Structures are given as structure tokens and as C-alpha cells.
Fold:
Amino acid sequence: MSDASWRLANGVIHELLALAVLLYVLFRQGRSARDIGLSFRWLDLPVSLALYGGGYLALYFTYIVLHYFYFFATGHVLKFWDDVSQLMGNHFSIVAIIFILINPWFEELIVRGYLMSEILALNKNAWVAVVLSVGVQSLYHLYQGIPNVVLLAVHFSIFALYYAKSRRILPVILAHFYTDAVSAGYFLFHHH
Structure:
């Protein structure tokens, strides 16, 4: 098993354990995943596609602004992180596919659904919930560098704003899944 496969397997175990802890905490509180917005409606599918598209457009617009601002300010091209192989390895594997399937559930149920629900219950301020959720989620992407974190924060903000308004997490999970799958697929098929 390659180093990337070991890292991914470790990530899958970590994320599944964290989701189990989340479900345990909700259970001990007398709540369920439905209480943080997890349920299915057919409308979730087109909404998730709109979220993915809106998040991508916001990210792309921010990319253009950062790229040109940096270039005009410094005369250099801003380098964005694009080495998905650091995470996924150089080819698709079963463990990479499992990780891509689990990761959106892990990130969105914990930092969007649970964290935002708790903050909203504590202070009723959606902006605080959005900023903290996006901040936490952005921080654990710092390995991608500041320029990418800024892009991701914009993308995550679209998800957080939608969740703050709708309190529906499944469209956000699906939109996150599309983002991860398209990014991994693009890199693996485009670069190899």
C-alpha cells in the first residue's frame, strides 16, 4: 500500500470515528442528525447542483480577482496549490473513492450542521455562525496555502449562508461531494 493510500485509510478511519462521536453526542443530547438538518427531499438534488455552481462561480471570480491583484501589485503570477496527488496519490484507488465519499459528510455534518446549529442555539446570530464555521473549515485546509484557503473560504461561505438560511445540510453535503469528486477527477485525469 502506497503512502497516499495509508494517509487516505487513516483519514477514512479518522472521519468515520468523528462522525460516530457526532452521532453519539446527538444521541446523548436526545437529538438526531435530522435535528441538524439531515433529511432527504427530491428538491435537494437540484439545490445541491445550484450550490455547487454558485460556490464554483464565487471561487472562480475570487481566483480572477486574486490573480490579477497579485500580478499588478508584484509583477509575479500567484501560485495556487493544485497537487491533489499529495492527498489522493497518483491514481484512483478504492480507498481514495471511499475518502471522497465520506469526506463531505464528515466536514459538512460537523463544521456546518453541528457547529452552526450550536452557535445559532447559543446566540441566534447567523453571521457569527457562518464566520466561525467557515473559519474552522478553512483552517484545516491551510496545507494548501493561503491563496487556496481564501478561495475555499469563499466557496464554503456559499454553503454556510445557504445552511444558515435553510437549515438543510444534505444539499451542502452533495455540493461538497461534487466539488471533491470533480477536483480529484480533474487532477488525476488531466495530469496523468
About this structure: The radius of gyration is 17 Å. Residues 3-15+44-191 form one domain. The chain has a mean pLDDT of 90. The chain has one domain: 3-15+44-191.
